[in-house]
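To illustrate the input format used throughout this study, we show a single complete record. The first block contains the structure-token representation of the backbone; no residue identities are included at this stage. The design step must infer an amino acid for every position from geometry alone.
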């Protein structure tokens, strides 16, 4: 799987979780949020340590600008993840924050898939994207292992 296929697959997993939030009772949202958080944590990590640095180093100025915007969007999304994780499930702030997290993430995904990924395909050889995908897959496994160990799971 190349880097773009891997990231799109991650986007699809998160989108399914968002659809589940929209289709279920609020009482189920905190448990679904935990899954969303786990997926977004690992996804942001592999983008930030492998994918984005490669694009920043070798992409054209327009692509680098999109990457820098993506990094800022990650900061915002991580802030919401942290705030939501700290809230009591019964807090009246939980649902509005979850809604904004979903909207911000959906916006980020639309920009990546609509603007960034087509530019990446133009500027990078398929073999480079395959190699990046393999590195990202490995990093994803390592991240999940280290976080499972840290949380005692």
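Output of the design step:
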């Amino acid at each position: 799987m190349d880097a773009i296929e891997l990231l799109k697959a991650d986007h699809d997993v998160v989108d399914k979780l968002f659809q589940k939030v929209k289709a279920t009772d609020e009482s189920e949202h905190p448990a679904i949020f935990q899954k969303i958080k786990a997926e977004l944590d690992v996804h942001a990590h592999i983008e930030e340590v492998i994918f984005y640095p490669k694009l920043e180093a070798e992409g054209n100025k327009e692509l680098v600008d999109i990457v820098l915007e993506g990094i800022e969007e990650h900061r915002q999304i991580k802030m919401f993840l942290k705030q939501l994780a700290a809230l009591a499930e019964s807090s009246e702030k939980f649902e509005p924050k979850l809604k904004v997290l979903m909207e911000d993430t959906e916006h980020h995904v639309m920009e990546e898939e609509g603007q960034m990924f087509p530019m990446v395909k133009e500027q990078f050889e398929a073999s480079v994207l395959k190699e990046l995908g393999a590195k990202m897959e490995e990093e994803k496994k390592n991240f999940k292992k280290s976080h499972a160990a840290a949380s005692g799971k």
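Structural context for interpreting the output: The mean pLDDT is 94. The radius of gyration is 16 Å.
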